[in-house]
User: Fold this.
Amino acid sequence: MENKEMQVVEKQEVESNVENIRRVPLFVPPVDIYESNGTLTLVADMPGVSIENLTIDLDKDTLTIRGATGVEETGGRTLLREYVSGDYYRQFSISNLIDREKIDASIKDGVLRLTLPKAESAKPRKIEVKAV
Amino acid sequence: MAIINFPRFPRLFNDPFQEISRMKREMDRMFESLSGPGQMLLGSGVFPPLNIEDDGENLSVHAELPGMKPEDIEISVEGNTLILRGERKPDSVENVNYHRRERLAGRFHKAITLPYEVNSEGVNAEYRNGVLKLNLPRAEHAKAKRIDVKAA
Assistant:
């Protein structure tokens, strides 16, 4: 993994009926989702998004992540344009096994980190078998 | 008296001009969807993708490099060549079960020829919210000089 060369992956645009209010493209941020010790962690790459421009909504079973990026143009003549900046949008369906009160979010250097702890009742329990 | 019926175009081509403009609209739509916002890119295919703008006196270079440490990004400028080197390290988490793994990690190395020589002393680099911004001022000797014509 360490010696791998970074590859250019074209940003994926959101394919849905959701249209962005601002006239910039809406991209699907790439995510990592992993689970350990009864906690789900979601990590999303959203370069250009600051804490003020990030919204996370939880409505019923849908978790929505939305981030807006600032305008980058400096007014000069464009010499090279290898990427387009835009906003980010992605939705996840989460089960009721998640303890909604304990969801925590942070963003640093354009990386969003969401921790979704599982509810106590959803954690695996050891059931003791009694000898009769 | 013979009535001559001129052959007619089928209904579709009732008005050839209308048909042409319809085709033009279709073509425009097609090209728009190919080159609409988000697609009009001239990529070199080398990571990281860069946006470069020139205001005549300064070049501004932008790159999206989320989740990096500034010390893991190495920038060097020599004459009119800009070199970006670095490594995006994978998250060091152990004993976890991955459900999705879409974020990439790895090393990168990109060299790019700039349209003019820049003053390497005056290069300014800033890393904010995962976006690297470089400002490269044009070298004094690379600036256009105005030559006054003296009256003899």
About this structure: The beta strands of chain A are 12-13, 26-28, 31-36, 39-45, 49-59, 62-69, 77-81, 87-93, 104-108, 111-117.
